[in-house]
Specification:
single chain; alpha/beta; Quinone Oxidoreductase, Chain A, domain 1; Rossmann fold; 2 domains; six-stranded parallel sheet; about 25% strand; binds NADP nicotinamide-adenine-dinucleotide phosphate
Amino acid sequence: MKTLALVASVVFTFSAAAQDTMKAIQATAFGGPEVLKLEDVAKPVPRDGEALVRVFAAGVNPVDWKIREGKLQGMTPPPPFIPGYDVAGVIDSMGPSDGGTRLKLGDSVYAYLALTAGGGYAEYVCVPLKTLAKKPQKANWSEAAATPLAALTAWQARFDQAKLQPGQTVLVHGAAGGVGHFAVQFAKAKGAKVIATASSANHEFLKSLGATVLIDYKTSKFEEVIKPGEVDVVLDTIGGDTQTRSFPLIRKGGTLVSIVQPPDAAKCKELGINGKVFLVQPSGTELAEIAKLIDENKVTPHVSAELPLAEAAKAQEMSKSGTTRGKIVLKVR
Ligand SMILES: NC(=O)c1ccc[n+]([C@@H]2O[C@H](COP(=O)([O-])OP(=O)(O)OC[C@H]3O[C@@H](n4cnc5c(N)ncnc54)[C@H](OP(=O)(O)O)[C@@H]3O)[C@@H](O)[C@H]2O)c1
């Protein structure tokens, strides 16, 4: 009898331990792609106001490899940490208090996880309920995971920063990338005219998303195609020379929004334009509005590559090449 009880207790302890771990990619140090390891780690436990999400897919963004290389130290946790800031999955459980959310266990959801938290390259992640929204029904798991960080950036640039209006002209640099391809579609949905810079291989793709003037930045100077003062808003996802050469193209009172580098304040003052830079913020409310646009077929997330979770290092190196069309996604299940 004693032996039976001992066996039962060992089996119970073993299965409880098995349930409490999960597969995840850990950044074991700051450094190159080799610091990313697929490991068994403790499954997180949701606290008040959080949901535990069973992750189906995780989006890959340029910030992932920048954080891995230690470029954002101070803003992000020290190693070992689980990277990944975009997820799509199912609510598995909730913390003791649900914070009055309308979301329920079993809901299909998507979220941008704050850079201070991360944890998306894993089978499970805890997410503040207020930053979750229901996954767009028209998007599959990969398309949903491709959306949050890049689409929220484009959304916040368009509405919060630039206050883009119907009939205005917007110049989107890096239009074929993660942020750019959402920015083109949001501007088109708002009734704006979109001028886009991208290599010629991406021009048909961008026309299909709503851009009407395409400029190959590799073979021509965009400032020789666009007239001075012709654009109301510039979205700068590139920085440097691209940003500087964009200033004269903006009409007086217009806006340059950068997501990579603060615009030169003195230059903006001299030209009478608004120069802004910002860091994307998580928002469940905005993700719900973005999901609506996706379900109305006004916006389509573009996934150019899907890799298994174990190939996170390869996915980050692909992102670092700077040639991604749309998004790269890790399939977790
Ligand atoms: N501040 C924030 O909150 C925030 C949020 C999101 C992203 N970011 C940053 O913004 C940048 C863009 O992010 P992302 O996710 O869109 O990057 P991404 O997906 O890696 O962008 C890749 C795209 O950039 C295009 N590109 C490269 N050089 C170009 C140039 N000189 N002119 C025009 N297009 C060019 C490429 O187009 P071709 O292949 O056609 O050359 C490619 O499609 C990154 O540095 C990222 O870290 C900041």
